[in-house]
Amino acid sequence: MLNHITFFLFRFNLVQPSAKTFDTWKLCGYVNRIEFALENGNYKTRKLAADTLGELGYESSIPALFKKINDNVQNVSIAVLNALEKIGCQDELGTTIIKKRFDWVKLQREKQAKREANKGKKYKIYRWERASKKSFDRVKEQLKKPIR
User: Fold this and answer.
1) Under 8 Å between Cβ of 64 and 53
2) pLDDT at position 56 over 80
3) Is 130 helix (H, G, I), strand (E, B) or coil?
4) pLDDT score recorded for residue 110
5) Which SS3 state, helix, strand or coil, does residue 33 take?
6) Dihedral sign, CA of 126, 131, 133, 134?
7) How far apart are CA 148 and CA 135, in angstroms?
8) Considering Cα of 129, then 130, then 134, then 140, what sign does the dihedral take?
9) CA Rg value for the chain
10) What pLDDT digit, counting tens, does each position of 107-119 carry?
11) Considering the entire predicted model, what is its pTM?
């Protein structure tokens, strides 16, 4: 009864379901509620929903997971990818998308590590005189002269 009330309050954006609620929904087999949470929850709720759908392993939830593969929050995208990998998306398009997305996540993490490694370094920046600035100054000086 309590999980019905929690879902009712969640539909009206009054509460966000907890991990315990997701465990209850998983035991009862409420896949539609978990997919609704994946679509409409905050980032923690979306991550929990993706993890729960991955644990359930229903192939019917693959389209809902594909909708959230490009989520704004990187942790949610990673949870969705892990869920899709656990479910075992067998079609060629799905495996290609998952592989490319994992490569993108790996690249983002490498960039972040590189930024952290170079955080304390100082670089010498040289200012070169540009030809366009010279020509601009020359034209400005010519405009100051009166026209004959």
Assistant:
1) yes
2) yes
3) coil
4) 94
5) helix
6) positive
7) 22
8) negative
9) 27
10) 988 999 998 988 8
11) 0.70
Of 24, 7, 25, nearest to 16 by C-alpha is: 7
Q: Do 81 and 56 contact (CB within 8 A), yes or no? A: no
Distance CA 34, CA 7 (A): 10
For the chain, give the mean pLDDT. Answer: 86
The string of DSSP codes covering 89-128 is: --SHHHHHHHHHHHHHHHHHHHHHHHHHHTTT-----PPP
Domains of the chain by range and CATH?
Answer: 2-144 (1.25.10.10)
For 51, 73, 117, 129, the CA distances from 76, given in Å and listed in that order, are 9, 6, 26, 48
What pLDDT is recorded for position 127? 61
Could you tell me the pLDDT band of residue 92, with boundaries at 50, 70 and 90? confident
